[in-house]
Amino acid sequence: KAGVTQTPRYLIKTRGQQVTLSCSPISGHRSVSWYQQTPGQGLQFLFEYFSETQRNKGNFPGRFSGRQFSNSRSEMNVSTLELGDSALYLCASSFDRRTSYEQYFGPGTRLTVT
Amino acid sequence: SQQGEEDPQALSIQEGENATMNCSYKTSINNLQWYRQNSGRGLVHLILIRSNEREKHSGRLRVTLDTSKKSSSLLITASRAADTASYFCAPLDSSYKLIFGSGTRLLVRP
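ok -> structure tokens follow
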């Protein structure tokens, strides 16, 4: 099976702009989670989508949003970018929480905000 | 705040030695997972231990779980240079959130 893919891999944006990141899960996986990784805060959970519905949410401001499509592909959007949003954004897919809920991660999108 | 906290933050060993990393967490869990991350890349799932299990093995990996102490350990035996990476524990809490700790940076010297 193909792994989790994320696009783009690298992105440079300016403060105040918005950005959309994309994630394609492993075929058959219906759960997609997003994480932000920074040197200062580590790996932080953003949100999880399952069957096009947000099922779980971390402690991030409303500028961070996401959605999931009927084919399980997911996008996350960050509006009004701030310098502190510079991070590695990781997407992970999983079959379902009723099983072990192992997460399969993509390579990440490295976002730099200038 | 972080749920899983690893100790030590950094570990440097010689190839062939064993590496032990510890993890503590705060609330009740469904399971606890360990992941590896090579330098700024995506995470790779290593092993999962359920809340009703005490010990689990997978190849050179051995994980223990003590739910009474809310702690887990990961042992990598006969380490190799390729094991150099950051290792994260991630308890799956009762709301099915995987909460990652800050990680242990392991350096295996050839």
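The mean pLDDT of chain A is 93.
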